[in-house]
Amino acid sequence: MSPDGMPLATILVADDSEDTRELLSRLLVAQGYRVICAEDGAQALDALTSQPIDLALLDVMMPRRTGFAVCRAVKARRETRLIPVVLVTGLTSTDDRLQGIESGADDFLSKPVRKEELLARVRSLVRLKQFTDELENAETVLCTLARSIEAKDPYTEGHCDRLARYSVALAERLRLPEEHRVALRRAGVVHDIGKVAVPERILFKPGPLDPEERRVMETHPVVGERICAPLKSFRPVLPIIRHHHERMDGSGYPDGLRNSSIPLTARILQTVDVFDALTTDRPYRKAMTRERAFDILREEVQRGWWDGTLVKELEVLIHTGTAVPTGRFAS
């Protein structure tokens, strides 16, 4: 048990042999772990998808679903893919090991299981899961903070979710790699998190900002980058946060970047950000139609502000219905 009397972690033991389940359970419970047992692959998958599990020990040859199949299903789900999976097997061939690796297994244990090896592997993988949970908790805090900023303004309701969906859809159309899509999904939510440092009298001012107010407002991309910088997993997100207010002619902020010096992911987010701003209600005007919004975007492309190719691709997505998030926007 941990110092506060709680189990060190929750471990799933899945094996069609009752003797094996009892042996592994006894060893793990004696070390302070909470153990859940399953006698076949279907029960194992149900347990893994219905309750918090910190580590799964899966027999390879189980009825209904093999350990390979359960592992593949777990690793394919966003909600469960970070659960460490150890395949416990009497199989020794290279092909079986390769199949386990291809299914996403994090480690292997050979039968008969040695107590010392079992506990060492469990301790190592549980520690890794705890680090992962801490990282996820930090990301959750950032996203909650970003949404709380959005919630203060009724005119931006749903803005973050729409930006995340638009941006990912546009990235998919451009066939960008998965890491770019993940970065854009995260950036859609946290891109304006730096506004936490902007006074509300400036943030929600219904009229134009004066020069000093504008200077304060234009600090928010740098502040947002600084807030998210400690998270290593957010490194691909940082350039999007910092540069989503740049313009192709160098008249944007905070760094006055031009053309391709602006990261592509930042250009994607800025394109959908402007479109969403035009097609939703604002204190000083009603939402524009999509057609009018794209007319304005094309005019601003001619001025040298936005990436014309991205504006064209977004227009195709919107008009084909491929990327139409639900929300308050004009038809």
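(ticket continues) Second input and output from the same batch:
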Amino acid sequence: MSLSVAYNIARGALAANAASASVVSRNVTNGENSNAARKTALLVTDATGGVYVAGVASQVATALLEKALESASASGQSVEVSGALRQLAEFIGDPELETSPAALIGAFRGALQAAAAVPHDATALQGVLSAAERLAASLNMASDTTASIRQTAQESFAQGVGELQTLVESFSDLNREIVTGTALGQDVTDQIDRRNGLLGQIAELVNIRTQTRADNDVAIFLGNGAILFETSARTISFDGSAALLPGQPGSLLRIDGIPQSSGERLGGKLGGLLIVRDEISLQVSSQLDEIARGLIVATRESDQSAVPTGGDQAGLFTYAGGPGLPPSGAVTTGLASMISVNANVRPAQGGLLELIRDGGISDPGDPRYDYNAASEPGYSGRLNQLIDSLTADQPFASSIGISVASGGVLALATTSAGWVEGERSSSSADSEQKKILAGKASSAWHSEVGVNLDDELTALMALERSYQASSRLISSVNAMFDALLSAVR
């Protein structure tokens, strides 16, 4: 080997050393960046035996990245569902809560029992009226709260769709830069780190799958197979201006104008919001509406004539469609928000408390609905009848997602509260579990491809030894050149 070749080899080694040290320095800088993959300088040996840096490569763990993205999506969905159920449970999930319809039906029944013991006592009848008003207000509030949760989910969904479009467009710009840089042989590892970060943010919004192709090109698909990005960003839209109709699902996410699956199939935060908006909220609303119908039916008044000619009418509890009863067998959408205590028993509105005891609430001017025709102050028959009617069997719509074999409206309210609390408890546990899984999946990916400062310190020590060896080689070559020149002189 000639001295000039040896000198070039040593000089090339120093240059490769400097480039490798620069890569290690970048790794150390990215030590706290959860999206950064460890970079490695690619050393290549040339024909003379020297080395040079041909490029920079990132650690790759595609399967772990896919698992991390999937876990992030599942966690994002469960967080939204759990949060909504927690809010609902605060109003109706615990039968012991003062705001719970189940608890207030029990309190209303207790007030009726107290009044039946002293039917002549106006204070006891006032207690029944107060309990009835609290019960109606509770159903109104629960219905309004459910509608508010649904509207909030709609607004959050619209905002999330806008975020998704922005992220996909940013991904498109970055992906184009990566593909072009790869084709030109440029170092695009930092851009790939940023692209992985965008993938993580997108996965939090929707469930995605990715496919890596030539020149580091990546395509993104939704969990249902719809293309979210391939070469160019797809148009993502949502008709946020469309009003939410009571009892009806809302608008869906659209990609290039095509509506996508809702709920579980969409996944991520957006999928969770659709589950809240179109499944949980609607189901709870329908249960509340059936509880309201059950109360109106349980307190209805019938024609007391020897030969009845009049139909049943809404009594103590009524609604906008009274005095007729709401139809059975199907949910009357919005009934829980409309139920109220009949003004005919409210003294503040000119009503008479005694009608709670005597009947005739539906139409005080029609004697056919008067249960206490003799106007006896000690009459308790109607009050006892109302007590029994709260637990008397009733048919309820099968579409509300729960069934009650017996126990009437009180059992329905209790079962509904139990359903909400059960869903909340299950969802909360599921959310915590998926948060843990998402954290573990992310940690596993980062452990595989991320920066370990101990490894970088070891690499620096190796580079230091390499630098020292190259320096000694250059010193030796210089000494040989000096000796050769001295001999020539």
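Agent notes: The mean pLDDT is 86. The chain has eleven helices and eleven strands. Closing as not reproducible unless the customer responds.
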